Amino acid sequence: MYENASAPAPSPWRLSVAPMLDWTDRHCRFFHRLITRHTRLYTEMVTTGALIHGDQHRHLDFNAEEHPVALQLGGSEPDDLAACARFAQQRGYDEVNLNCGCPSERVQRGAFGACLMAEPALVRDGVKAMNDALGGALPVTVKHRIGIDRIEAYGFVRDFVGTVAEGGCTVFIVHARNAWLQGLSPKENREIPPLRYDLVAQLKREFPQLTIAINGGLATDVQIAEQLDPAGAALDGVMVGREAYHNPAVMAGWDARFFGDGTRLDADDDWRLAIEQQMVAYMARQQAERGTPWAHIARHMLGLWNGRPGARRWRQVWSDHRLKGEPAAEVARQALHARTA
Ligand SMILES: Cc1cc2nc3c(=O)[nH]c(=O)nc-3n(C[C@H](O)[C@H](O)[C@H](O)COP(=O)(O)O)c2cc1C
Known about the structure:
By secondary structure, the chain is of the alpha/beta class. The protein has helices at residues 26-35, 48-53, 56-60, 78-91, 105-109, 120-134, 154-165, 197-206, 221-228, 242-246, 254-259, 270-290, 294-298, 311-318, 328-340; strands at 15-17, 40-47, 69-74, 95-100, 140-145, 171-175, 211-215, 237-240.
């Protein structure tokens, strides 16, 4: 894919790492950015209530290196969404994304997340309020499922997308399975409802003018390429979640393969070590500037050496809380020793 230098520039949504609560915080995104320069990164979901009433620095601060980075909002009240979209703009985010896919009970009590798929007009109004507030400065996008509960008909997601597009949303990221709002935990809701990629391809055929990215169970380069292939599903983008987090090396070839940007990271181990060293320097900086313990950062990179000799021993050192009083450089020294012993 994208091997032809004269081809048009790839969609900004061509590849992205999914928003993941508790996982894709600023440290995780900094780490992912070291592995891939072009992939779009998403924050964890932040509720409008937390932004309006809570600690904005905690929720919104990010590293300049993270661009392009999108803020994902959880909320449904158009005025609140508009206010939060403005915060995102002021802070320099590249996109505001609305979560219409999270099925957790806490989120349902707040009447947002996946249950918003039953209220497309409200989502349209929220999107419009955000677009009005931003005046086109940032794209407003929506991440959603293909259905809720036992609604399997394509018409449901088609009507949702059609209505929300009326609010000025032109980018939809579709997690290609239903959310079952009762009886499943959020984790089960990422595993049990069946994946139906064909519905997402159908959306793209029906709305060729919209940017449609697909999410759910996609990880390998071959799987990604299949979704982007103009002769196949011809989707505009692929969003990868769990695999990118657990096995970050999957991202190492993305810039070259999907963005035509050299062959920065090759198959040998040097790139892993270089990134680990950059992370150690980052940990030292975060400790000095913000008092952040290295363990808060290191937890996101525990998959870095997966599949390589000594990975388990390396991981054990970086997750050893007895070392929490040591500087990150010393932990790195011990981890290297353990890995190569
Ligand atoms: C730990 C975890 C937290 C998640 N938090 C969010 C979230 O905050 N917002 C959201 O839209 N999706 C969230 N998701 C769902 C992912 O964004 C993604 O849609 C899902 O994991 C399917 O993609 P995958 O199969 O590539 O992992 C979360 C997933 C995981 C594993």
